[in-house]
Amino acid sequence: MSTSPLSLRLLALLSCLAGLPAAALAADPVYPPGSRFGFDPAKEMVVSRRFTGFERTGGGATVSVVELPAQAYKDLTANFTDENLKSQGLVVKSRETLKLADGREGLLVTGEQPIEQPPGTPALHKWVFLVSDPTVTGIVIGQTLPGAEADDAMRAMLTSVRVRPALTLDQQVAALPFRVTDTAGFRPVRVLGGNSVLYTVGPKDQMVNLEQPILVLAEAVQPAPGAEQRDAFAKAALYSNQTMKDFAIERSQSFRQNGADWHEIVARAVDVPSGTPVVVSQTIRFQPDGYFRAVGVVRASDREAMLPRFRKVVDAIAF
User: Fold this and answer.
1) Domains in the chain, start-ordered, CATH in brackets?
2) For residue range 156-177, what is the model confidence (pLDDT) as tens digits?
3) 51, 103, 162, 196: least buried by Cβ within 10 Å?
4) CB contact at 8 A, 238 and 264
5) Quick check: 246 and 270 in contact, CB under 8 A?
6) Within the chain, where are the H helices?
7) pTM for the structure as a whole
8) CB 44 within 8 A of CB 56
């Protein structure tokens, strides 16, 4: 996949984010958990729990951050043309190359994104800020509903960006919104988006043909389904994994544990890339403001040894 389509899809994805309250502000630059990019937040902008970035406590304004390799900056600046951005719904009003206080370079594009529904809704004000650093590229996307946040306040926030040194894997794991108190022999491989982590057992960080089991833990802050919809929700989440096919559910059940509602599925499936028979364990913990999901995948031949270890990790999660 080339950088250009990826960057445009990221822009389209982040364009739909709305505002919910999250964390507290500080006088110094504020870094979203696990992110290398910090800002002086505009008034009422707080760290989001739904994505890497910030949200306005009263809604209507967001700042989102995506990190890419350092070499992506050149391709992004070449491909973020007015025409390409317009194809993603952003009507460009201005663009400028900036030199930041710490010497870093950035490309700031401002414009509007029309909202089709309901008819007559004012367009979103939008900023796309590409930030160059020798070790990382940042895509910073700010957007506001008219009147939610002053344009100059949003610009000041975006251009206040600082880039800190790369976090160690342990630091990224420590910044997650949950803690793994017993890894059952698993080790973390990488953290994604500040709210999810990939674990494995074995020496390899790149798992080809599932020669090592994998366990993904993630927290989502979005409305959780009602009790009567949870079984269907869990099955839909399981089937959404495009790297597996031919699911055959062995067990699907809800239960209460430590004062919370849970749902667990154990299913057989086939790994699409390799054709290897696998067993999938999916456990979801429903929370008032979202849910936590754990998905473990292991070769069918290793299920007896690994399924209890998946569950041991899940039972040791602290929120």
Assistant:
1) 3-163 (3.40.1000.10), 169-318 (3.40.1000.10)
2) 999 999 999 999 999 999 999 9
3) 103
4) no
5) yes
6) 3-14, 72-79, 82-87, 151-159, 169-174, 230-239, 303-315
7) 0.77
8) yes
